[in-house]
Structure formats: structure tokens, C-alpha cells
Amino acid sequence: MFISNNQPIILYKYLTKDLFKYFLFALFALIILIFFIDVIELFRRSSNKVAVNHLAKADTFDLFSMALLKIIGNVLKILPFAVLIGSISCFYQWRKKNYYIICKTSGISLWRILSPILVSFFLIGLISVVILNPFATLLNNKYENLQTFFFGQKNLKTFSFDTKGFWIKEISKEEYLIINANKINENLNTLFNVHIFIYDHNKIFKKRISAKRAVFSEKKLNLFEGQLTKNDSKIEIFNKLTLFIKSNPKNLNVATVEPEKIFIFDFPSYLKQMQLYGLNTSKHLLHFFKLVCQPFLILSMILLSASLMLRSSERKVEVGIVSLSLVVGFSLYFIGDFIFALGSSEKLPPLLSGFGPTLIGLFAGCYLTSDIDEAKKVNIKKDLK
Questions:
Q1: Could you report the per-residue pLDDT of 83-117, keeping only the tens digit for each?
Q2: Most exposed residue of 104, 177, 217, 277, measured as fewest CB within 10 angstroms of its CB?
Q3: Residue 244 in contact with residue 172, Cβ under 8 Å?
Q4: Are 211 and 194 in contact (CB under 8 A)?
């Protein structure tokens, strides 16, 4: 193999593999821990459904299978934590075995040591977003189906949203209504470009109503400027028509697809559809930004732990330094989640909430890493004098 004096490739490969080894150990330990926590929670939920006869009973194999379906999704969530714990463990060994001191005395800066590591872990983060995310989405949908089958779900009165607009089922006296709208205003309880299909109790079609606007009130649905088409093709024009319904919706609730169930490549088109139909896109937009920031968050964890653990040349590592590195890394992640929550409630712009925490951590890590190299250069000059 070609070895250059300026670029010791073998050394870089060894140090990168060393960090990758500690990362895999940390990732495996966290996966096992979270897997057993999920299994315990599923057993608890299963025990609470013993007397519920209308739901299928889940045996041990079913519960373990459900927990296994969540593993890839959990990997995406804990990847930054695994990188943080693996980095701190690895850099601790570097100080203990004098790896960093030897590199420093050989004229190799910290940036040159970390560059191949950062490139490798950036690719890991990219693969996790591009490849693992679709698998996690598929398995998450399968998990939700099994969860509904074994544990049931709450029957919420919500509008479902798809490419054809909004849909909901209602009951009016002895008739069944299927309501479709092209646009919705959740705050005003108002639907636009409404189509209502009415069936009797035998599910036989009776008539169709089309209206420009519909407003929900107390057990009423008021339709404005539309026409009524009966099954014999007779058409009646109306300015206002009131349908009495059994439900009493105080606020319209639109059931959009959860961000965790959307492929990363489908986000742009889905967000465009939500904007077209007048829905709030903050939650979905922030989740998309969080996925995009995953590789950069991983780099932030490595840079922050390296700048804190390798700042001193002493072989003895104090517990305070390790604790500080863990606190800084976890704080970056949890503060990021807090800012994401502010963005979801529209108290902060989505772009700032999505990219802000990760970029702050990345710039802070770059600054602290550069500060280590600069400090060492000053010390070398002093020693020569």
C-alpha cells in the first residue's frame, strides 16, 4: 500500500476503525437496552387487555415480533447518542494510550486526525437517512397495524387527508353521509368545495349534494350555494341547506399521515399537498429538517467530544471531563427537541427551529477543535524560546 509521509493513510485508517469499533459497541448496547424496554412495555399493555374479548390476544412471539419491528426506527433515533458515547470512550483510550500525544509530536494536527473520521461518519449518517429511513417507515406502518389489531385504537372523529382532499363519515337520522372537501379551515370549522354522498341504512345510494361551502355548528352541517342530485338524476338548486348530524364537532381535526410514516423522498410532494389544502405543515416540515440534519448532528457529537476529551495531554482522565462531554452532547440533542417543539407550535420559524440547534453544535465543535490546535502551536513556540 502507498504510504505518504505527509498523509499517513495507515494511521488514519487505524484511528477511524478504532472509533468505529467503539461506536458499534455503544450502538449495540443501546439497541439491546431499548429492545427489552419495548418488550416490557408491550407485555404490560398486553396484560391490561386480558378481559377485552373483542381484541385478538397477543402471545409472546407476537410481542417480541412487534418489538423487533421498532429496531430500525430506534436505530435512527439513538444514532447520535451511540456516536457520542462511542466517541467519548474512544478518545478516553486515545489519551490513556498516548495516541493523540504521539500524533501531536509527529506534527499531525487534530483536524487531520478527525477529517477521515468525520467523512466516514457523515456517510453513515447519510446512509441512515437515505436507506434506513424507508425501511423504518415500512416497519413502523406494520407495527401500527399490529398495534391496532392487538390493542385497538381510539375512535376519533377526524378528517382523513389524501390526494383527493378530506374525507369523513357522519350519521344524519337514519342516513349515512360520506363527506368530501377540497379545502378546509380548521379554525372556522368550514369546508370548501364540498361533496356529500348520502346512503340509507341498507347502504343504498340516495342522493348527492355539492356545495361551495359548508360550516359545522352544534349537531348541524350548514351548506351554502349548491345543488342536490337525487338517484333519479333530478337536480335541485339551493342557497342554504341544513343537515342534522349526531356528532357535535367543536373543532375540526384533520388526520394527516404522521411524519414518521412518510418516506423522506415523499416529503416534498406531501408538504406541497398540505399547503395546497390549507393545512399546517410545521410538524412535518420540522421532521423533514431533522432527518436532513442527522449527518451533521453526528459530526457535532464527534467534534464536541474530541474537543473536550483531548484538550488536556494528561493520561489521567477526570470523571468531570467525561461527565461534561456527556452533558454537552445530551444537552445539544434535548435542547434541539425543545426548539423543535417551539417550531411545531409556530413560535419559531421552521427553518430556524430545524437547522438552528444542529448548526450551533456543529460550529461550536469546529471552534473548540480549532482552538486546541491553535493553543498547541502557541505552546510549541514558547518551548522553543
A1: 989 998 898 888 888 887 888 887 788 888 899 99
A2: 217
A3: yes
A4: yes
Between the CA of residue 95 and those of 15, 89, 216, 297, 368, what are the distances in Å? 13, 10, 68, 24, 18
Burial 301-320 (b: 16+ CB within 10 A, else e): bbbbbbbbbbeeeeeebeee
Closest among 211, 207, 208 to 221, alpha carbons compared: 211
Reported as a single tens digit per residue, the pLDDT across 254-310 is 556 778 778 888 888 878 777 766 677 778 888 888 888 899 999 998 998 888 887
Q: In what order do the strands lie in the sheet with 254-255?
A: 235-244, 220-230, 205-217, 190-199, 175-185, 165-172, 159-162, 254-255
Where along the chain do its domains lie?
A: 9-153+279-384, 159-252
* Integer angstrom CA distances of residue 350 from 76, 230, 257, 341, 365: 21, 47, 19, 10, 24
Q: Whole-angstrom Cα distance, residue 97 to residue 316? A: 10
Give residues with Cβ within 8 angstroms of 175, minimum separation 6.
198, 199, 200, 201, 206
Which is nearest to 222 in space by CA: 231, 212, 214?
A: 214
Q: How far is CA 31 from CA 36, 51, 52, 123, 160, in A?
A: 9, 32, 32, 21, 34
Q: Grid coordinates representing 133? A: 429511513
**Could you tell me which of 172, 170, 168 has the C-alpha nearest to residue 181?**
168
The total of other beta-carbon atoms located within 10 Å of residue 183's CB is 16
| Beta strand 254-255 pairing with 159-162 | parallel
